[in-house]
What we know:
Blueprint: H1 4-17, E1 35-41, E2 50-52, E3 54-59, E4 66-67, E5 73-76, E6 82-84, E7 89-92, E8 96-104, E9 107-115
Antiparallel strand pairs: 1-3, 2-7, 3-4, 5-8, 6-7, 8-9
Amino acid sequence: MQTSTSIALRLVLCGALGLGIAACTNNPTLPSTTVTSLSITGAPPVVGATAQFAASVVLASASVVQDVTTLVTWQSADNTIATVSKNGLVTGIKAGSTKLTATYNGSAVTASVTINPAP
């Protein structure tokens, strides 16, 4: 909820800075968050070890790759084989294969992960 102070401050700032009307509205135009591509990278750990996975995204509003590892929602299809933390740290629980999924802004990417026995 806006107070009369916040509205007055916006008017003063907009007037003092000479900003256009669009920059001083209640609903500024935000950059597009449409995902052009989303990818997962990382090497799976062996049983009893951990490995860091990363997630990268290219948005329609930008042409650069952005690291979104800590912003995606991580999920392992089989937590008896491998678990994944909210930051993409994968732990090998037992030998086998599972799928690792990263979801960002409604887009998801899945990668197969094979956990091998420790040497």
